[in-house]
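Narrative summary of target 7.
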Amino acid sequence: MVVQVIITQFGGIVFRTAPLNGAQWGVSLGISFLTLPIGLILRLIPICYRPAPLPPRPQVTREKLLWENAIQNVRTQLLVVRTFRRGRERKQ
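Modeled conformation, tokenized:
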């Protein structure tokens, strides 16, 4: 906290800060002190009322990535073959 005050008040050009006046420091301290009771209140809320945690992300293995890449390559090649066939059919 002391370092924050020093940087804010005297950092100037180096940290691109401007000194705060008394009212601004009061608001800053007031907001920071609100975090303690809010944190306490949140810890008192029973777990049954908290939202469910997000499900874990599926693990992607190297083998799965290689298979998906190979399948995408085959799809691209089939698309190219189909495009050439349609071009030949239109010319005839």
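The mean pLDDT is 87.
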